[in-house]
Structures are given as C-alpha cells and as structure tokens.
Amino acid sequence: MSSRREFITLLGGAAAWPLAAHAQQADRVRRIGALMTQAADDPEGQARLLALAQGLQESGWAIGGNVRIDTRWGAGDAERYRRYAAELVALAPDVILVNGPAALAQLQQATRSVPIVFVNVVDPVGAGFVVSVARPGGNATGFMLSEYSTSGKWLELLKEIASRVTRAAIIRDPTLTAAVAQFAAIQSAAASLGVELSPIDMRNTGEVERTIAAFARPPNGGLIVTAAGGLSTRRSRSSRWRRGTVCQQCTRSATTSLTVA
Q: What secondary structure, in 3-state letters, does 177-193 show?
C-alpha cells in the first residue's frame, strides 16, 4: 500500500488538474469532496479522514484556512452513494476523494470532469473505472488495493498457519469483478495445496453467518475473506467471524484455523 505522503501528493496533483482554468483565483480556498463508504460514526472512517487532514497539513494545507473538506458518509447504502455523489459534484470541488468501488461508480456517473482520487479499489481497470494502470485516462486515478496474483498466497498462508487444513470457505461478493478474479487465483492454488474450496456469496449477512457456522462444524476448515462489497460497513459482525461465536467453532481444534484476507 502506498504511503500517506504518496497519497497526499497524488491528491494534490489531481487537484491541480483544473487549476489552469482558475489561475486568476490563486488565493481562493481549495475544496475537497470526500465520499466515504462507512457510517459517520465508524472509527476506521474517522481515522482515515484524520490521516488525510494530517497529511494535508504536513504539505502546507490548513483545514478551514486555504482548504476545506466536504464529507459525505454512505454507510454502505447504494442510494446514499448516488445522492451524495450528486451533492458533492454540485459543490464544484477541485477534487473528490472516494473510498471503494460502489461509491466510485456513482461518482463517475455524476461527473466526467471533476478530478477523482480513489482508494480501496481492487480492480479499477477490470471494473472500467480507468483505461489502464499506467495511463488511467478520464478524470479518475488512485490506488489499487492488491494484485490478483497475490490472492493465491492467502491460501498458502492458511496452510502454513494450520498444515492440516483441507477445506477453506471463501467469502466473496460475486457482483464484484475483483472478488471473482481473487477467487479464481485462489482456485488455481487449491489443487496443489490439497484444499477443497467452498465459496460463500456475500448477499445477506445473516445467511453468511449461518453458512459459516455450518461450515465450521467439521474439522480441518479455514476461512478467507476476499473483496466483499459493503463488508467494512458490517464490521461489528465481521469481527465476530474473527473472534466471536461463529469462529470459536472454526478454532475449537488444532486442525482448524482462520485467516482474513
């Protein structure tokens, strides 16, 4: 993952795209829009915004002085993404920061001229957000979350953690190109590692929990979480998969283990 300084540099560079047309307004307050996928009270989302503010200050930008940030919290709701994307574009910001592919899709429908910097997007090329990694084109640029080829390593890591694992449940969102590609990479490694895969589609949280609980009953099982739309907004429940009642069943014997990717 790129450093905070690299991110701030990219954000500043994107904000500079339209400045030629506004050279006569060199002293005006710059405006950054932020479309977050978390809820407003989400600690991770707040921490990310704080890191952004700190990085901007280190680069000479003063929040409330020469730059302001307008934030909208989508809380995993597609309709909010659509509405807030339109709201932010209407504010005519110099650049918009967006977190996640679902919100990015709504932003690109709302504008093809306001510069966009995205984070936490696994496959921006496959999803059609950019033309290529080297030359994004259009009005969007940003950071890929990971390379698909590394997804097979998650299964290798699972086997290193618990060598007797022979079954692995893979939580995924089948509507996301990234999740499909990650699952394919895991599949390619499964045969050589002697692991049988069980995909669990991320559609209904309650159903996912029940499926994991059923999967956890036999021994020698493990769990991998791939790119899953809205998963960060279900953190209270996904944390239970790591340490709560569902995963106590996963970890009740030495032959069973859990990894979250």
A: HHHHHHHHHHHHHHHHH
The Cβ of residue 125 has, within 10 Å, a number of other Cβ atoms equal to 14
In the block, tokens 């209904």 appear at: 204
Integer Cα distance of 107 and 114 in angstroms? 9
The three-class DSSP label of residue 3 is coil
- Which residue would you say has higher pLDDT here, 60 or 14? 60
List the structure tokens of 183: 């699952």
CATH class for the region spanning 4-144: alpha beta
Instruction: Evaluate whether 4-144 and 148-250 have a shared fold.
Output: yes
**Homologous superfamily assigned to 148-250:** Response regulator (3.40.50.2300)
Q: What is the pLDDT of residues 138-164, one digit of tens each?
A: 999 998 776 777 888 999 999 999 899
Phi-psi group of 204: left, alpha or beta (phi > 0 → left; psi -120 to 50 → alpha; rest → beta): beta
Looking at residue 153, what DSSP letter applies?
H
Cα separation, 225 vs 9, in Å, equals: 31
Nearest alpha carbon to residue 19 among 95, 79, 106, 98: 95
- For 142, the token pair is 């940003």
Cα–Cα distances in angstroms (integers) from residue 166 to residues 15, 189, 232, 246, 251, in the given order: 50, 13, 28, 19, 14
**Is 118:139 a contact under the CB 8 Å cutoff?**
no
Look up the pTM and report it.
Answer: 0.61
Residue with tokens 């209270």: 236
Phi, psi dihedral angles at 68 (to 5 degrees) = -130, 150
